Amino acid sequence: MASPPQINVGLLGMGVVGGGVAAALIEQSSDIALKIGRPVKLKKILVRDLGKHAGANLPTGMLTTIPEEILNDNEIHVVVEAMGGTQPAAGYMKQALASGKHVVTANKEVIAKYGPGLIYLAHQKGVNLLYEASVGGGIPIVGSLMRDLAANNVHSIKGIINGTTNYILTRMANDGAEFSQALNEAQQRGYAEADPTNDVEGIDAVYKISILASLAFHRSVSPGDVYRQGITRLEPQDFRYASELGYAIKSLAIATLQNGNIKARVYPALLPLDHMLAKVDGVYNAVEVEGDLCGKVLFHGLGAGREPTTSAVMGDVIEASRSLVAQDESTKVSASQNRSSEPDSFDYADALTEDRETGSSENSIDDLICKYYLRLNVQDRPGVFAQIGKVLGDGEISIASVLQKDTNQAEQTAEIVITTHPSIESSVQASLKALTELDVVRNVSNVLRIEE
Ligand code: NAP
Ligand code: HSE
Question: Which residue, of 278, 302, 326, is where some domain finishes?
């Protein structure tokens, strides 16, 4: 097939991301033509509600509420999906790929849940499915894992990959902001997902780490395989205690390869204040990749918001357009790139309809070994530490430090913070259960892992 004289783009969605992409395609049209050697034009934009966009400065007829005007238009070569959610987004992407269009998406949920099937379809059709914007906003981490680091055996990925939670945690740590106030600000700035539960409960980060782990370890990691804990149980005193102990609190997404098994998890954790990731604040994201050849490589940049995400989406639009210009050669390149995250034995037909869950605290990380931070509310009377120490000792958990704060004389209670030496997760969980059964322990207020 001859490559088209002009590359036409259809855009699904014109919110935070789609609005930035529309503006870039319209305002930077001649710059893009220079980069590709061919004009790239925005032809149609799908929205739900035309009235909402009545004031938009767009050519007449560019907006539509009818998806077929993009999906069935043979003159549209690249479809950019910036709607969010799984359906109808995944269905539209499937339809676009099936009719031979290149697809660019910012949608981590669709890629995490339906990626293998869509990648297979793209491969079959010889087109690109590109999703740089799905992880890390403007940070080029997806393409780096697909191509630039592909020669490595990756040992681990550790990162801060949700801008909303990092913004919230930074405001809480540095300014003593309330959780709800900081979340509201993140929403105003366009960082948060349509349903911010996905951000604060770690679901968004689960999608992203499953995408990164699939690329890094060359096998399908489903969101359902990822252990998940959100940030909603963190309280102001956790930040004060962490700081006193020499730590920051960050929501981390981690995937490691141990004895051939991938262990992926998302949870808030304590990090030494001098750790590189501890210094990543606000809406910034950072991902540390450790490979056998490259050693430790750190990617750092703006993880959410209109401009950084537009940067990533437009990079993919330009790549898809270049593929169209170099039609024959690109078919081979795109197929081999997409193959990098294809597992050897995967039922692709099922994957097109399969919903691969959102991560869960039920997923086992029982054999994880790390240090722990425990915050307990206890009775303030003699012998309490002895009882707690015995339970931890019986579980082979060695105490590294103890702080006693915030005594309530009227109620005769105290808050104590214990840090441990490296311990096995299953022992810690069993000991926590035993601690809650002690009369002297009013409650276990928080449990956080300490990463080094
Ligand atoms: P958004 O502001 O809520 O915009 C969504 C857009 O999609 C709106 O224009 C909406 O139409 C349209 N839309 C939604 N459902 C539709 C449907 N069924 N039919 C037609 N149009 C529909 O969302 P966003 O923040 O731009 O996020 C879009 C995607 O980018 C998501 O997958 C998100 O995870 C991802 N992402 C976002 C960021 C970020 O910083 N915001 C960063 C990276 C990735 P109306 O305008 O008519 O309502
Ligand atoms: N809600 C996401 C975040 C947007 O805060 O990181 C970018 O994926």
Answer: 302
CATH number at residue 129: 3.40.50.720
C-beta 159 within 6 A of ligand 2: no
Q: Using a 6 Å cutoff on CB, does residue 332 contact ligand 1?
A: no
The answer to whether 101 is a known catalytic residue is: no
pLDDT at 197: 96
Active-site residue, selected from the candidate residues 108, 208, 250, 371 = 208
Looking at 281, 302, 323, the residue that finishes a domain is 302
Rounded to two decimals, the pTM is 0.92
Ligand 2 centroid–CA 335 distance in Å is 28
Counting the structural domains of the chain, the total is: 3
Residues of the chain with pLDDT under 50: 328-355
Q: What is the pLDDT of residue 211?
A: 98
Please answer whether residues 344 and 123 qualify as being in contact, where contact means their C-beta atoms are separated by less than 8 angstroms.
Answer: no
Q: For residue 363, is it within any domain?
A: no
Whether 159 and 277 have beta carbons less than 8 Å apart is answered as: yes
pLDDT tens-digit map of 384-404 = 999 999 999 999 999 999 998
| H or E, element range at 106 | none
Dihedral sign for Cα atoms in the order 235, 237, 240, 245: negative
Segment 122-142, tens digit of pLDDT = 999 999 999 999 999 999 999
Segments forming the whole domain that contains residue 192: 141-302
Do 298 and 315 fall within a single domain?
A: no
Q: What is the pLDDT of residue 338?
A: 46
Tell me: do 23 and 117 sit in the same domain. yes
Q: Which atom of ligand 1 lies closest to the CA of 47?
A: 21
Tell me, in angstroms, the distance from the centre of ligand 1 to residue 18's CA: 7
pLDDT at 361: 58
Phi-psi domain of 200 (left: phi exceeds 0; alpha: psi -120 through 50; beta: other): alpha
